[in-house]
Every structure is written in structure tokens, then in C-alpha cells.
Amino acid sequence: MADVVASEVAQFIQKIENRSARIGIIGMGYVGLPLALLFSEERFAVTGFDIDGKKVSALNAGGSYIVRIPGTEIQAAQKHGFLATADYSEIGNVDVVIICVPTPLNENHEPDLSYIRDTAKAIAPHLREGQLVILESTTYPGTTEEVLIPLLEVGNSSGLHVNREDATSGFYVAFSPEREDPGNDTVARRDIPKVVGGVGPLALELASAVYASIFNRTVPVSTPAAAEMTKLLENIYRCVNIALVNELKQLCHRMGIDIFEVIDAAKTKPFGFQAFYPGPGLGGHCIPIDPFYLSWKAKQYDFRTKFIELAGEVNVAMPYYVVDKTVEALNEESKALKGSKILVLGLAYKKDVDDLRESPSLTIIELLKDRGAIVSYNDPFFPYVGRGRHYDLDMHGVSLDNLAQYDCVLIVTDHSDYDYARIVHESKLIIDSRNATKGIESEKIVRC
Ligand SMILES: NC(=O)c1ccc[n+]([C@@H]2O[C@H](COP(=O)([O-])OP(=O)(O)OC[C@H]3O[C@@H](n4cnc5c(N)ncnc54)[C@H](O)[C@@H]3O)[C@@H](O)[C@H]2O)c1
């Protein structure tokens, strides 16, 4: 039996090495599409699965819907066999299935694993022996074993089971977290080490071989749960440290100290300190969401994750703090927020990205509108903003031509393309929640 398995594993690895393995990636979003392109660059034929027909059509027409990915990259991938589909029967034709679907929170702030469940149910009937299924979506420890595998096993009409050790049949399963940092070009994607946890040593070996073909370093851990927890530790670490500097920023404002000057000085320490920066609140699909996956799971173990809850409290309050600071600054000008014309600069959750998810800008705009301000916005990435899960704005962006018409310009996202010196020069009052105007001296600037 061991020989059969050894030869199956050897064949699989050979297919990876000679690039004849076909890779299937489920979810052609911010994570799945760049991953597909990385495999294509390494001459693998990739099939991208998505339930969004518009994305499938765009990709098959050689186009892209993510700003930082030009259509030419999709076309180059097509030359290596890249194609997109919504047809799950194609799963039978791939050797590796990598799942990159969303893992949001539901309305009760609890993990919403419906996308993972739906994907598992859709894959299961088409699974075949020897295939490797890898989950990349961020989630709580235990998801691969407790949610993904049972659905794959139950939904599979051939009676296949996960191959944990050295059974002669079955499919292989692993978890490997995504570590992308959108907009950060300082580290090449392939230089980001890839953590991998397999269900059994064979799955670990196969998944490591798959990722070693596109990443310079893989980091094996003992179980999928350890890999799931690794991702959460990384994001909770950010969330807690951002909350710490957000709290200290508020204290520094009261004490008349510039928090950014303090952080810049502290980060000259060559050990034991990593710089995190305060802002108007957390955004993106990871840092505001992932920690709550763990606090939810922790309750099953009768455990309260107090750091996560406290950090959440501080970070969630930041958009309110920015709005309060705006009220104060207008008050200094003898103006009420109600009826004031306010231009919000930046909708994206962080600079230079075309991603709105959980952006504090959306909350700030809603708070300002609720309190009677007349709000406009500008964002080069979003000419229009409509409805989302937590907002309903229906607004068109405005130009930066006539800044003097606004009672206040509020910088929420510090996009690099903005000419901050001109913005300060032409505006009546600037509220800067990002330190974007660093180095510009003007009494019109209120940093918050
Ligand atoms: N965006 C990031 O920077 C980032 C970084 C690290 C980890 N992650 C994690 O990666 C996962 C994916 O995030 P994302 O940002 O790529 O999300 P996304 O929303 O950009 O993309 C997900 C894609 O999956 C598709 N999809 C949903 N259900 C599907 C199904 N049943 N079958 C096929 N396709 C389906 C959607 O149509 C969408 O195109 C999440 O768990 C997220 O937490 C994201």
C-alpha cells in the first residue's frame, strides 16, 4: 500500500515540476486572480472559477477589473492556458483546487462561512482521487477539518475520503493562508514566505511542492489549524497595535504632542519596536474582520479574547473621533456641522487601492450626513459609490477644481496622487486624519 501511495505522490510532484499539472482557483477576486497569474507566470495552465458571470466574461475577453492588474497580464496568462469559468464540472480536469472565496462577518458579527460551504458543496461531486484541495480563505482554526472536509466527503458520490496518512485512495487537503498586502510593492509576491498546514504528511508534502513552484520559501506547520491560527495571529497583531496607536493618538492630541513624530523617533530603536500608524479607523477585508473569527471560536472554548475586543472597541470608535474633531474645527470657525459643505478626500480603505471594503470613509460620510452636513467626496478610484452591506450612499465623486467652496476638506485616504500642498493652499480648512500633510505648515490644517 505504501508503494502505491509513494508512486502517486511522486507522479503528482513530477507533474508540478514539469508544469503539466492543471491548477484550479476558486474565487477570482483580489486574492485568487493574482494567485492565478503567479501560477501562469510559472507556465502552469490555470482554470479560474467564479460565480460572478461578469468577472468570467471579462477575464475570458482578456480584461481585468482590478486596477493594479492590467489586461495585458490576463492576456499573457491566456497564452499559458488560463481560462475562467462558472462551470464546476471543470473541477474534474484540474489537479489542484485552491479556494479563495470571501469570509466576511454576518450581521451579528459572527463568521459567515456560507461562501466556503457553497464552494465545498459545488466541488464535492466532481472530486477525483489524488486531487489536492487547498483552502486559502482566512478563517478560524478548525474550519478545514470541521467544515470543509465533511462537506467534501459527504457530497462526493464516489465515496472518496480525505487521505490523511497512507490510505491508497482519496483526495488530499491542506490550508495555506494568503498574505497579500494590496498596494505594497516593497516585497515581491514570490518573496513572501507561504505557510502550509496539511491534513497528514502527504497533503503537506504535495501542497508544499505546489507552492514551492511559485514562492521562494514555504513554511510547513503541523496541522491546518496551526496554519489557520498563524494567519489570525498576524492580523490580530496588527489590529491590536493599530488600536494602541489610535488610543495614544487621542491622548497625544490632548497633550499637544505629535504622535507621528513620536512614532518616527521610537522606530529608530533597532530592536523590540515595530511602527504602526494611527488613522481614521480600520478598513479592508482582513484587519477589521478576521480577529472576530477567533473571538467567536474562542467562546466555544469558554474563553474571552479580551485584547481583540478592546482593540475592536478602540478602532470602531475612530471614525466617530474624526467626526468629533471636524465638529470642533468648524466650531473654531464659528460654523455648525449642520449645513456645512464638507469634501471627503478618499473612499478606499487605504491609499492607492481600489478597494472599499469596510472603509472608514463610508462610515465617516454617513455620520456627517446624518448630522446634517452637505457631503461630497473625491476618489480617483471610485467615480461613483452606491450601496454596500453596511452603507447606502448613492453619490458621484466631484472634481478638486473649486476647493474654496467647501467649509472643510477632510482627508480620510491619503492617496499618493493628491497634491497636498495645492489642496492646503486652496482650501479654507483641512482636517487631516492620515498625516498626509506632513511637512506642510499652515494654520488651516487640523491633524486628528
Ligand atoms: N484582499 C486581501 O488583501 C486579502 C489578504 C489576505 C487574505 N484574504 C482572504 O482571502 C479570501 C478572499 O478574499 P478576496 O479579497 O480575494 O475576496 P474577493 O471578494 O475579492 O473575491 C472573492 C471572489 O470569490 C467569488 N466567489 C464567491 N463565492 C464563490 C463560489 N461559491 N464559487 C466561485 N466563486 C465564488 C466572488 O465572486 C469573488 O470574485 C478571504 O477569506 C479574505 O479574508 C484577502
What's the layout of helices and strands?
Blueprint: H1 2-17, E1 22-26, H2 32-41, E2 45-49, H3 53-60, H4 71-79, E3 83-85, E4 96-99, H5 114-123, E5 132-135, H6 143-154, E6 172-175, E7 194-198, H7 201-212, E8 218-221, H8 224-255, H9 259-266, H10 290-299, H11 306-316, H12 318-332, E9 341-345, H13 360-370, E10 374-378, E11 384-387, E12 392-396, E13 408-411, H14 420-426, E14 430-432, E15 445-447
Helix pairs in contact: 1-7, 2-4, 5-6, 8-10, 8-11, 12-13
The structure holds nicotinamide-adenine-dinucleotide.
What ions, cofactors and ligands are bound? nicotinamide-adenine-dinucleotide
Percent range of helical residues: 25-40%
- Count of alpha and pi helical runs: 14
Global mean pLDDT: 95
For the biggest β-sheet, the strand order reads 3-2-1-4-5-6-7-8
Structure class: alpha/beta
Order of helices and strands: HEHEHHEEHEHEEHEHHHHHEHEEEEHEE
How can the largest sheet be summarized?
8 strands, mixed
Low-confidence stretches: none
